TrEMBL record:
SUPFAM superfamilies the record matches: GST C-terminal domain-like (SSF47616), Thioredoxin-like (SSF52833)
Source species of the chain: Sphingomonas immobilis
Gene3D superfamilies xrefs: 1.20.1050.10, Glutaredoxin
Source species, domain of life: Bacteria
Pfam families, A to Z: GST_C, GST_N_2
Domain called GST N-terminal: residue spans: 18-105
Cited InterPro entries: Glutathione-S-Trfase_C-like (IPR010987), Glutathione-S-Trfase_C_sf (IPR036282), Glutathione_S-Trfase (IPR040079), Glutathione_S-Trfase_N (IPR004045), GST_C (IPR004046), Thioredoxin-like_sf (IPR036249)
Domain GST C-terminal: 108-234
Organismal lineage: Bacteria, Pseudomonadati, Pseudomonadota, Alphaproteobacteria, Sphingomonadales
Protein name: Glutathione S-transferase N-terminal domain-containing protein
Amino acid sequence: MTDLADFPITQRWPAQHPDRLQLYSLPTPNGVKASIMLEETGLPYEVHVVDFGKDDQHTPEFESLNPNGKIPAILDPNGPGGKPLALFESGAILLYLAEKTGKFLPTDPIRRLQTIQWVMFQMGGVGPMFGQVGFFVKFAGKDFEDKRPRDRYVGEAKRLLGVMDKALAGRDWFLGDDYTIADISMLGWVRGLVGFYEAGDLVGFDGFANVKAWLERGLARPAVQRGLTIPARP
């Protein structure tokens, strides 16, 4: 196993347990995908807070691991072939952890691809669109006099929720009876949309009964409850 000190990120965030997977994150809708997955799988890991208030995500040390300057990112000392693996992008991290542990990703080729398609749906649609709604409802965008940009993203968020609601009809999870990384990828974003962003009324969330029930099921899972608070905010 290569010494993790060889990785510049450990200069700013030293590993107290270098034999464990290192998580660099904050409990945002993207960040909690990794922490929920780690809690669900039971993999030993060490967490490091990336403080946005200190602009940690744009330091040379963090960007040595993720040149895109976004959380979450991981450093696994026991990657493929026993070699260390540095990895960024929450969707890629979910896929990697699922393959590493053999959990939350079906082995059947068709169901595996169906799971991945929903993860891509979240990455390309749910995350970006819900995040834009948040900007226009919770942050600086709320002060824009022209509401057309806000309404555009609200309309797209409603459309995506409609797609999700239809897919969840008669199902507990996106893959039916199987809880997978597809669900893990979306729980934080839907929770954030109606909770932190306070946009539930704006998008008519109560009208998406299947999504609402799915969210309640997901939030009832103990590992999800833990993962949503990891790491603790500074």
